[in-house]
Amino acid sequence: MNSGKLDRLINIREQVVSTSRSTDGAPIITTSTISSNVWAKKEPLTGREYFTQDQRYYDSDIRYRLRHTTAITETCKIHDVYSSVDYDVKMFQDIDDRHRELIVLGKRIK
Questions:
Q1: CB-hemisphere CA count at 13 Å for 50?
Q2: Distance separating alpha carbons of residues 6 and 25, to the nearest angstrom
């Protein structure tokens, strides 16, 4: 992996559902940061914009390449520090099973 191409800072976050409830009875969901300021390369894959019921929606898929980490799971979220956009992790893969590089595929959270 060419570390000079890692030009984006991302945070890896995980949602935690608390056992306590809010005043209206809904469970309290908090987000905790697992890894912060991880360098990655951002590669946009697909994107579209559409209108439904007089509202505009964005749908985009993204690929991040980063150094291998065991902190990421499919329940995590990726926060792009530069663009302040959050992505759901859809899939991640260890390249060649060498524990050097990780590819993470994500979908933008609306």
A1: 7
A2: 43
Which tokens sit at 100?
A: 């050097």
**Would you give the DSSP letter of residue 70?**
S
Provide CATH code, domain 3-108: 2.40.10.370
Average pLDDT over residues 43-53: 83
Q: pTM for this one?
A: 0.78
Measure the CA angle with vertex 92, ends 64 and 48; round to 5°: 55
> Taking the chain, what is the end-to-end CA distance rounded to the nearest angstrom?
31
Report the distance separating Cα 19 and Cα 7, nearest Å.
38
State the virtual CA torsion across 96, 41, 109, 37 in degrees, nearest 10.
Answer: 100
User: Distance (Å, rounded) from C-alpha 62 to C-alpha 55?
Assistant: 23
